[in-house]
Amino acid sequence: MDNMKRNVVVTGFEPFGEHTVNASWVAVQELKKLGLGNDVDLHVLEVPVEYQAVQRIIPTLWKRYKPQLVVHVGLSGMATTVTLEKCGHNEGYKGLDNCGFCPDGHCCVDGGPHCIDSVIDMDSVCKRMAASGLGVAVSVSKDAGRYLCDFTYYTSLYLSHGRSAFIHVPPLGKPYSGEELGRALQAILQEMLDILARAEEEIQCQQRD
């Protein structure tokens, strides 16, 4: 098992609204260049800013790659830090997507929980990043915004039983470059993978005991 590579999937979004360049996809492409080490197969994908496309694409990522972790990266025009989202929300989706579509009932999953938390302790990741001298400010949030970012996160959390993460990045140059955002994603994802690996080791130890 030790010599098997771990699959990690990271998505960014296409341009939308006034954002003719989406910093999330730029950052993900920079991360792809950097990689996550020799023991990780990193798969990246640009996701349309469309509710129905998200509902079609996210399940196929889980089926195709059987990833250890899926991380979605999105752009927040209001963000000035790299922001780790703790949870996804099921209801409140009233904003129209790039196709002018809005989901029936304004929700992700009929009858799904109101909110789903990631199994990853985002506060712990944030503290590690603050202590790492990364040079990029990292913060934590409980509200991914009730648009395609939140919708994607909830969908992924629902399918993965919490083995997903969502990271919001600010627009390019406000204040970070694409390269800086890519380096930040690399450090954050490596920390997330360490947290998951430690949790799995603890479970295996408990099973042996």
From TrEMBL:
GO terms for cellular component: cytosol. Pfam families: Peptidase_C15. InterPro entries: Peptidase_C15, Peptidase_C15-like, Peptidase_C15-like_sf, PGPEP1_Cys_AS, PGPEP1_Glu_AS. CDD domains: Peptidase_C15. Its EC number is 3.4.19.3. SUPFAM superfamilies: Pyrrolidone carboxyl peptidase (pyroglutamate aminopeptidase) (SSF53182). It comes from the Eukaryota. The keyword Protease applies. Removes 5-oxoproline from various penultimate amino acid residues except L-proline. This is Pyroglutamyl-peptidase I. The gene is PGPEP1.
